[in-house]
Amino acid sequence: MSVAVELRHITKRFPGVIANKDVSIKVETGTVHALVGENGAGKSTVMKILYGMQRPDSGEILVNGANVNFKNPNDAIAAGIGMVHQHFMLADNFTVLENIILGSEPKHGATIDFVAARKKVVEMAAQYGLDIDPDVLVEELGVGQRQRVEILKVLFRGAKILIFDEPTAVLVPQEVDDLFKALEGLRAQGMAVIFISHKLDEVLRVADEVTVVRQGSTVAEVKSKDVTARQLAELMVGSELPKPSTLGHTRREEITLTLRDVSIATATGSRNLISNISFDLHAGEVVGIAGVEGNGQAELVEAIMGLREYTGSIEFHGSSIDELSVAERHDLGIGLIPEDRQRQALMMSSPLWENRILGHQRGKPVMRGFVIDKKATIESTRTIMQEFDVRAPGPDTLAAALSGGNQQKFIVGREMSKVPALLVASHPTRGVDVGAQGAIWDVLRKAREKGMAVVLISADLEELIGMSDRLLVMLRGAITAELDPTKTTPEQLGSAMTGAV
Amino acid sequence: MSNSLTRKLSPSKIGLAVAAPLAAAVFSIIISSLAVIASKKSPMEAFTTMWDYGTEAGSLMEVINTATPYYIAAIAIAVTFRAGLFNIGVEGQLRLGALFSCYIGAMFVLPPVLHVAVVFIIAMTFGGLWAAIAAYLKVKRGVNEVISTIMLNALAGGLSAYLLSKHFALVEEGSNNLQTKELPASAQVPDLMPLLRKFGVEDQPGGGVYGMFFVAVALGLIFWFVVNRTRFGFELRASGLNPIAARVSGVNSKKMTFLALVISGAIAGLAGLPEVLGQTHSYNLGFRAGIGFSAIAVALLGRNSAGGMAFSALLFGFLEVSSRSLELIDIAPETYVIMQGSILLSAVIAYEVVRRFKLTLQSNELAKVVQP
Amino acid sequence: MKAMKILRYATMLVFVLASIRVITGASDLTSTGTASAALLLSVPIVLAALGGLFSERAGVVNIGLEGMMIMGAWAGGYIGSQHGPWFGLMAAMIFGSVGALVHAIATVTFGVDHVVSGVAINIIAAGLVRYLSTLMYKNGSWPGPSQSPGIETIPLNGLPVLSGGQYFGWKSPDLLGSIANLNWFFVSDIASILRGLTGDVSYVTVVAISFVPLAYFILWRTAFGLRLRSAGEAPVAAESLGVNVYAMKYAGVLISGGLAGLGGGFLAIVAASNYQENQVAGRGYIGLAALLFGNYRPGGLLAGAGLFGFADALQLRDSAAIHALLLLIVVILAFVAFRKFKSGKQIGGLLALTAAGFTLWFYFAVDELPGQLVTMTPYIATLLVMALASQRLRMPAADGMPYRRGGLR
C-alpha cells in the first residue's frame, strides 16, 4: 500500500482559536483513517489546511509522495482531494445537478453540457449506491440525501482522497449504516478516506487507523483493532469523560406545562408542520424530544414560546397562555435556549453586557423602570461570566469575539439567571467542548432538582437518554412514541426516530 | 478574569477611534484637491479661501442654519437605521409636513408658544402619516421600505405641487410665486439674534440663527437618551442588529418596524420647519429641496449617533456655505459636492475597516485570556 | 406552458384595455404611439433591471443603479455630443461601470453595507455630474449648466412586411399599420400595439431588448452564469468548490454598472436628444422595483419594466387616458375582491371592493386629472405592483450579506 497523503509538522496560529501545533498524519490508499479529538481540538483546522481553505504557518503536505502547496481549494481539488463538509455546502435554490457540477462544469461550446453532466452523475450514483434524482432542488431533500449530494460532488471531481468532516453528526443510526456502507465501497475502490469524528464507537467500527489530536497537537496514531473506546477517550481528553445523567427522579406533583392538540399548519395550509401534540410536563421533570431534524421540533419550540401561531392550547401552571405574546411568556418564567445561538440569541457586534439585556429587557436587574441600569447590567454580566466560566476579557467584549462554546455558556447563564420555571432547551450543548458540555449538564441537573421543568431537544442521543426523565419521539410533526430512557439504547431510539419500529 | 484589560485605555484603542475619521479626511482632501486642480487652480488657495470665508461670524450663522434641518432629518433617518430599516423618504415627509403645517397653521391664531407647538404637531402628523404608508406596506405586504419610500418621495413632490397650486396657495395678481397664507406671528419661531447680542455677537447682514436650532439640539439629546438608555431604544437597536434574536427575545418585530418608520416620518416632518417658521413664514415654490438626501449622507457619516451626526451636519453646512467663496477665485462652488461625496464614501469604508480591525484585536486579546 | 399562460394574460389585458377604450373614448390606451412610447420608456428601466439582476444574482444589492444611470446619462451626453451617439453609448457604459467599481470595492472588498454604499454612490453621482456640467458650462462648451449640446440621432427601422421600415432602399409595406387603421374592436387594438412595438424602433432598442434573453442564456446556461449565481446563493459552498466568489461578485456588479450606464446613456441619446439634469429621475429605483416584481428573473423584469413604461408613456402622451386607466384599476380591484371572497377572506375582499367603489366614484366625480397628479402615475403603479407582488418573492439566498473569504467576519 502506498501513502496517499501525509501531513508533516503542520503548525497554524489564529487569533482567539487554539492553533495547530506540530500535527503529523499519514494516510494510506485503500484505508479509512479516522481523526479524532474533542470539539475545538483543531481537527477541522487540519482538514481546512489539507483542503487549501487555510494555509499553514509551517510544515509540509505531501500528496502521493510529492510536496504540494495549496493556495485555495482549487489546488486541492486538482490534486485529487475532496471534502464532505459537516455543515453542508449546498445552494438550496440550485438543483442537485447544478450543485454537483458547480466549479467543474462540463462544457459544450459556450454552454454547460447538462446532458453529459446528468449522465455522468446518474452513472456515478449507481456505481457507489448513492441513489438521487439530479433534477430536484436541494431544498426539497432530507439530511441523508443532502449528504449524498455532497459525496457525489466530491466524486464528480475525480477525488481519490476524501475528507469527511463529522459526517454522522446530523444522521440517525440507520443513515449512519448507509453512510458506512458507502465508505466501505470507497475503500474497496482504492480511495483514501479521512474520517473526522468524536464518536469513538463509530470510529472503531469504520476506521482502519486512528490519529488522535488534543489541544491542537497529534498525541497518538494507532490501529483501530488495537484500542478500545475507553483508551481512545482518555487519549482524546487526557482525563475521564463526563456523562449525561440526571441521577434519580425529582419530579413533583404540580404540572408546569400542558400541551393539548397543538398543531401548526404550513403557510398554504396544505399540511401540518406539527399535529396534535399533547403532553404534560411536571415540575422537576425533563422531557426529551427526540427526532430527526426537521420533524417539527423547531415548530414545537416556536409554539411554546409564542413565536408562531398555532391551534390547540398550551397551559403554564394551569392557566392558558395561548393569548400571550412572546414577551409575556418570557416574563412568566419560560426560558429559552434557542438552537442557533448566533442567529437567534446574540447580537454579535454588541458587547456582552448589552447581550445580557436581550430577552430580559422588561425587568430587573437590567432595567429600572423603562431605563437601562447599565451598572447593574455590567455587574450581572460579570456574575454570569464567573459562574458559567465564560472566557472573555470582560463585559465589554463583543459577542463575536467569543468562541462558540463560550457564547453558549453565556446564553445558558443568561437564561438561568432569571431562574425560569420552564426551560426550553434546543441543542443546549451543540458544538461546545467537553468541559463546557459537562458544566451545562450540571446546571440543568441542579435547576431540575429545584423544580425547574425542561423541554430538551437534542440530536445527541446519549444526551437525550442521559438527561431525560421521559422521551417523546417526533416524526413528521407528530409524537409517535413515548420511551423510558432507562430502558432505551441509542439504537432503539434511532429506530423510533425513523419510524422503523 | 482580567477586568483590568477592558478598563485600560491602550494607545491602540485611542488610535482606532481616530483612525477612521482621519483616513477619511485625508482621502477626501486628496480627491477635492484633484477636483480643484482640474479647474487649474491651487488647492491650497481654495482651502484657505473657504476657511477664511466660512469662519466669518455671518457665515457661521448660516452654517448653523444650514445644518439645523440636516440634523433633524438625519435623526429621522437614524431612527430607522438603528432599527435595521432605511427611510429614504424623509425628503417627501418633510415637504408634506412643512406644506400642511403652513396651510393649517395659518388658519388660526393661538398664544405664541402653543401655536408653535400645534404647528409642530401638524408637521409631525403629516410626516408620520406619509411614512405610515410605507410602514403599512412593509408590515402587511412585505414591500421593501427603501423602494416604497423613494416612490413616496416622488408622490409627495407631485402631491405637494398639486395641492399648493390648486388648493393651498393665495392667488396674487401679477406674481408667479405660489405661496400659502403667511403664518401669524404667534406661529413664527423668533430669531436667536437678541440672545446672541447679549453674548457680544454683532448683527450680520445675512440675518441671525434660527430659533429651531434649540429644537434640533433638544431632539439630539432625546434621541441619544431614548436609543441608548431606554427599553424602547434597546428593542429598536436589537431589531436592527439581529432581527431574529430580537423577535425571539420578545420584541414584536412588526410593531417595532411600524413604530420606527412612523416616528422617523414624524421627526422628518419637523425638518422642513426651521426655514419656514424662522424665515419665509409660508410654504412656497422655492421650498428648499434636497434636505432629505443630504441628511442621508449626514446620518451615514455621523454613524447614526447623536454626536456624530451633529458634527457631520455642521461639516456639511460649513462646506456648503464656505464653498460659495470659491466663485471669487473662479472655481465652481459645486466643488463642495465632490468634497461631501468623497468624505462620505471614504468614511463608510473606513468605519468598516476599523470595525474589522477592532474585532481582530479583541480576538487577539481573548486568545491571551484563554490560553494560559 | 408558462409562455401560454403569459400570452393568455396579455391577451386578457389587451381585451380589457380595448373595452375601456371603447367605453371612454380614450383612444391612446391602445394606440401605436402609446405602445411605441411605452417601449422607448421601458428600455432604460429594462437595462437598469438587468443590471440589478446581474448584481443581485451575484449577491450584491445594488441600489446604486440610480447613480450609475446618472453617470451614464452624463457621459452619454458629453461624449455623444462630441463624438457621436455610438461613442456616447460606449462612454455611458464605461462611466456606469466606474460607479459600479466603486460599489464593488466598498461592498465586496471592504464589506460595507450594500444599501449604504449604494445610496452613497447615488448621492455622489448626482453631485459629481452637477460639478462636471458646471465645468463644461464654464468652459463654454455647453449651452447651460444643466444640459449638454444636442446629440445626433440614431436611425430607426421597423420589421419588414409587418411594420414598414427601410431595407437597402426598399420601402417595406406596413401590414400592422393598415390593420390598426381599420378600427376593428380588439383586432385593431392588438395590431396597433404590435405596430408600436415593432415599427420605427431604434437599433439601440433592439439591442437592449435582446439583452433580456441573452442575460437568461448567460446566467442559466453557461458556467460563468452558474458560478455567478452560486456567489449569490451560497458563497461559502461556491468557494469550497474553487469558485472565485470575489471575482464573480465584481463581475456581477461591473456588468450591472455597464448596463445601468447604458440605460442612462439611452435616456440622453435615444429617448431624448441631449443630456439634461434630472433626466434619470428615479428610473434606477424603478428598475430595481421591476426586478423585484419580476422575482429576479429576466422575463419577469421585462414584464415589470413594460408595465412602468406603459404607465409612463400614457402620462406623457395623454392625461385623459390616465383618467380612463382608473377604470382598469376598478377592474383589477374587483378581480382581487373576487379572489379574496372565493378563498374565504371576507375582510380583504370587502376592502378591495370598497377601494374599487371609491375609484369608480372618483372616476365619475373628476373629469380630468390635474397634470401634477398625472405625472405620479408610474410611481403609483410601482407602489401598487410592489404591494401586490412582494410576498411571493424569492431573492437569492445570500443577497445583501457581507461575505469574506475563509468565513471570517
From TrEMBL, chain A:
Pfam families found in the cross-reference section: ABC_tran
GO CC, one annotated term: plasma membrane
GO molecular function, one term: ATP binding
Record keywords: ATP-binding, Cell membrane, Membrane, Nucleotide-binding, Repeat, Translocase, Transport
Subcellular location: Cell membrane
UniProt domain ABC transporter: residue ranges: 5-240, 259-501
Gene3D superfamilies, per database record: P-loop containing nucleotide triphosphate hydrolases
Coiled coil: none
Main location per the UniProt record: membrane
Membrane association type: Peripheral membrane protein
UniProt-listed InterPro entries: AAA+_ATPase, ABC_carbohydrate_import_ATPase, ABC_transporter-like_ATP-bd, ABC_transporter-like_CS, P-loop_NTPase
SUPFAM superfamilies recorded: P-loop containing nucleoside triphosphate hydrolases
Name of the protein described by the UniProt record: Heme ABC transporter ATP-binding protein
Record organism: Actinobacteria bacterium BACL15 MAG-120619-bin91
UniProtKB/TrEMBL annotation, chain B:
Subcellular location, record wording: Cell membrane
Record membrane topology: Multi-pass membrane protein
Predominant localisation class: membrane
Gene Ontology CC terms, in alphabetical order: plasma membrane
Gene Ontology MF term list: transmembrane transporter activity
Transmembrane is among the record's keywords: yes
Alphabetized Pfam families for the sequence: BPD_transp_2
Family annotation (InterPro entries): ABC_transp_permease
Keywords of this entry: Cell membrane, Membrane, Transmembrane, Transmembrane helix
Keyword Transmembrane helix: yes
Bilayer-spanning residue ranges: 14-38, 120-139, 146-164, 207-227, 256-273
Protein name listed in UniProt: Sugar ABC transporter permease
From TrEMBL, chain C:
Coiled coil segments of this chain: none
Cellular localisation: Cell membrane
GO molecular function, one term: transmembrane transporter activity
Segments passing through the bilayer: 35-54, 61-80, 86-108, 115-133, 175-194, 201-220, 250-272, 284-308, 320-338, 347-366, 372-389
Domain of life: Bacteria
CDD domains reported for this sequence: TM_PBP1_transp_TpRbsC_like
Membrane disposition: Multi-pass membrane protein
Keyword terms of this UniProt record: Cell membrane, Membrane, Transmembrane, Transmembrane helix
One cellular-component annotation, GO: plasma membrane
Protein name per its UniProtKB record: ABC transporter permease
High-level lineage: Bacteria, Bacillati, Actinomycetota, Actinomycetes, Actinomycetes incertae sedis
